Amino acid sequence: MELNLEVVPAPPRAAASVVMVRDTARGLEVFLIRRHDRSDVLAGAHVFPGGKIDPHDRSHDSRALLASPAQGLAACLNEAGLDPQTAASVYLAAIRETFEESGVLLARGARADHAAQATALVRAGLRFDQAVARLALWLDPAELLPWSRWITPRLPMVGNKRFDTRFFIATLPPGQTARHDNLEASDSVWLRPRDALQSYWNGTIALAPPQIMTLAHLSHYPAVAQVLAAGRARPPALIEPEPIDAGGDRVVCYPGDERHSRATRVMPGPTRLSYRHRRFEPMGGFDGLFTPTTGI
């Protein structure tokens, strides 16, 4: 993955990303898609389904499809000054992007055949919100657990775009199957968090820092129930990475690092990643990704 050297003065774009999880006999697994090589954001990297909020996510007609009131959604995100309409658009973007990039439909009572019908309607030319309305379904924000909020700094470590991304946890709905769309994504895989990071370390897949740190965090939980319990026990973590130069290396610091403006940790794992060997590495090598921190 190439290091970005360009300062981006534009404000960050509002976005949403969904970390889809499931239980298996081998433990907790996370769904990752590989961005198409032609993508203008993280081309070739493995990411969680997601993308920026689009105008239809902000429309009254789309908000009317939500099974939960917008006021309650703003409270769930726990952000001072966040208006209910914006909160609703964040949830709508998360649900829409999950469907578009994985085929999973987070709607109340949605079955595999509903997801297939919605896919067919979208391919026939309907927008996502129009397809959901045609099927008389309610989009279900309760399927999404707010996990973290990442705001790209003015000097991004990768890419030349800034995002204000809310990350959610979602459990794969029973009977539905997640698969990449072959448009924005060229491949997909379910992996245990530690195995995904091992593949990254071995050079098999590429990951950006938010995915690295999120996977490192999730590696501490053996099953979906523990992830959900952890997310419900605390407000979503606000993570504003701060890049520095350290001994000739580009380094990105996170809350709790001695060089970060916030002294309190908000997640386990390393407090900084250094760009070396064309990848982002913690102090202590691979094992440094799994630093435990109690109370987080």
Report on the structure:
With 296 residues, the protein is an alpha+beta fold. It has a domain at 13-211: Alpha-Beta Complex (Nucleoside Triphosphate Pyrophosphohydrolase), CATH 3.90.79. The chain is 27% helix and 24% strand. The mean pLDDT is 95.
End-to-end gap: 30 Å
Low-pLDDT windows of residues: none
- Total count of strands: 12
What's the Cα radius of gyration?
A: 18 Å
Secondary structure blueprint with pairings:
Elements: E1 13-24, E2 27-35, E3 46-47, E4 50-52, H1 60-63, H2 70-77, H3 84-102, H4 112-123, H5 128-134, E5 145-151, E6 163-171, E7 185-191, H6 193-202, H7 209-218, H8 224-232, E8 237-239, E9 242-246, E10 249-253, E11 272-276, E12 279-281
Parallel strand pairs: 1-6, 5-8
Antiparallel strand pairs: 1-2, 1-4, 2-3, 2-7, 5-6, 9-10, 10-11, 11-12
Fill in the keyword field for this structure:
single chain, 296 residues, alpha+beta, Nucleoside Triphosphate Pyrophosphohydrolase, eight-stranded mixed beta sheet, 8 helices, 12 strands, 27% helix, globular
What is the gist of this entry?
This protein is an alpha+beta fold and 296 residues long. Helix content is 27%, strand content 24%.
